[in-house]
């Protein structure tokens, strides 16, 4: 298992993950980031919509970024 870090890059502020979480694959980490983004769009919309979640490996390389979209955009994709 590998450790992945989830950094929140907001419009007004950033939040860094200094502990990380272990996942079996990068796809599992991506799935978790997508779920976090969806949760943020529902629960803390004013603060995080328009920002992104950068998923990084242990050496700090950004593997991918997941945007936090307005809830309506998630509903349209379903």
Helix content: 25-40%
- Profile the largest sheet: 5 strands, antiparallel
Query: Helical segment tally?
Result: 3
* Uncertain runs: none
In total, the number of strands is 5
Description of the molecule:
The chain has 78 residues and is an alpha+beta fold. The protein has one domain. The protein has three helices and five strands, in the order βββααββα. It has helices at residues 26-43, 45-48, 71-77; strands spanning 2-9, 14-15, 21-23, 52-56, 62-67. Strands 1, 2, 3, 4 and 5 form a five-stranded antiparallel sheet that branches. A hairpin with a 4-residue loop joins β1 (2-9) and β2 (14-15). The chain starts with a strand and ends with a helix.
Tags for this model:
single chain, 78 residues, alpha+beta, 5-stranded antiparallel sheet, 3 helices, 5 strands, 37% helix, globular
In short:
The chain is α+β, with helices and mostly antiparallel strands and 78 residues long. The chain is built from three helices and five strands, in the order βββααββα.
What topology emerges from the helices and strands here?
Elements: E1 2-9, E2 14-15, E3 21-23, H1 26-43, H2 45-48, E4 52-56, E5 62-67, H3 71-77
Antiparallel strand pairs: 1-2, 1-3, 1-4, 4-5
């Amino acid at each position: 298992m590998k450790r992945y870090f989830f950094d929140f890059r907001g419009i007004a502020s950033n939040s860094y993950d200094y502990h990380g979480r272990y996942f079996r694959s990068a796809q599992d980490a991506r799935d978790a980031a997508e779920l976090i983004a969806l949760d943020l769009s529902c629960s803390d919309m004013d603060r995080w919509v328009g920002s992104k979640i950068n998923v990084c490996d242990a050496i700090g390389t950004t593997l991918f970024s997941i945007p936090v979209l307005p809830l309506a955009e998630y509903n349209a994709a379903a």
